[in-house]
Amino acid sequence: MTAAGSATESCAGPAGGFPYRLIATDLDGTLLRSDDSVSQRTREALAAATAAGAAHIVVTGRAVPWTRHILDDLGYNGLAVCGQGAQVYHAGEHRLLTSVTLDRQLAGVALAKIEAETGPLYLAASRDGLDGDVLVGPGYAVAGHLPAVPFTDASDLWSAPLNKIYIQHPTLSDDELAAAARRTAGGFVTVTMAGAGIVELLPLGLSKATGLSLAARRLGLKAADTIAFGDMPNDVPMFGWAARGVAMANAHEELKAVADEVTSSNDEDGIAVVLERLSS
Fold first, then answer.
1. Are 225 and 125 in contact (CB under 8 A)?
2. pLDDT, tens digit (0-9, with 9 covering 90-100), for 238-262
3. DSSP state letters, the chain
4. The pTM is what?
5. Which residue has the higher pLDDT, 266 or 7?
6. Is-contact 241 4, C-beta < 8 A?
7. CB neighbours of 110 closer than 8 A, spacing ≥ 6?
8. Distance of CA 130 to CAs 3, 54, 127, 245, Å?
9. Which whole number is the average pLDDT over 12-39?
10. What's the rounded Cα separation, in Å, for the pair 229 and 27?
11. In degrees rounded to 5, what are phi and psi of residue 100?
12. How far is 66 from 169, CA to CA, in rounded Å?
């Protein structure tokens, strides 16, 4: 996957019969297996597609500080859309090209409205920038072993620009919490679900489609050129933007409902299955 997403390749049209000029892949639950690896089969399928003239863009809910090490390990040198579309990052140059931050006043109003209905929430927040910390408050459970900075004083949450706020609830399911947040605060922030225990408040109107369209434009590519792969409701806008949306077998039912196709799971090389078929 070393060549994936390089800007020099992206302007070439598809060759060898590959029908798309842009491949957009989510990370967790999609490109990454359950052990956070990318299989050799998937690497080879992506390499073949990029050799045929397609560009590959990683599109992830993770902000840059939680994404950069993965891209570096993969030898990925192209553009990546991070933070649910808030950041366009050049992996080869380790440079942030665009960044959108959350209006902290609106976010505070949104949290108050949600908590008025649900009761107290567990909170975390992602600070803006290449090295922005993820702040984690009491009770909030971080998935895996990602680096985070604990906070106890609520004022710390608002002391620097943020990309997003994460919310959890002691009893509500992710679907229930997301629905309550949209119902009470949807006019102030965008609410999305990115994985188990990951309900997020984003700048109003922001989505993966927003960031992907910006990154694609930098490469001279369009929605009609794009096939997208994902697994969670935060991928719904990306599927709506792309010419074709492919959900993994392990995907949330909300995403499967809008997908053009459901492939094998992330642990069964679902991306490779589709790319190999399209390349043949």
1. no
2. 999 999 999 999 999 999 999 999 9
3. -TTTT-HHHHTSPP-TT---SEEEE-IIIIIS-TTS---HHHHHHHHHHHHTT-EEEEE-SS-HHHHHHHHHHHT--SEEEEGGGTEEEETTTTEEEEE----HHHHHHHHHHHHHHH---EEEEEESSTTPPEEE-TTPPPSTT---EE--SGGGGGSS-EEEEEEE-SSS-HHHHHHHHHHHHTTTEEEEEEETTEEEEEETT--HHHHHHHHHHHTT--GGGEEEEE-SGGGHHHHHHSSEEEE-TT--HHHHTT-SEE---GGGTHHHHHHHHHH-
4. 0.90
5. 266
6. no
7. 181, 185, 188, 189, 201
8. 23, 27, 9, 29
9. 86
10. 9
11. -115, 135
12. 23
Specify the residue for token string 């990029």. 50
Structure-token match 């020099």, residue found:
8
Q: Which residue type is seen at 89?
A: Y
Q: Which two tokens stand for residue 133?
A: 């910390």
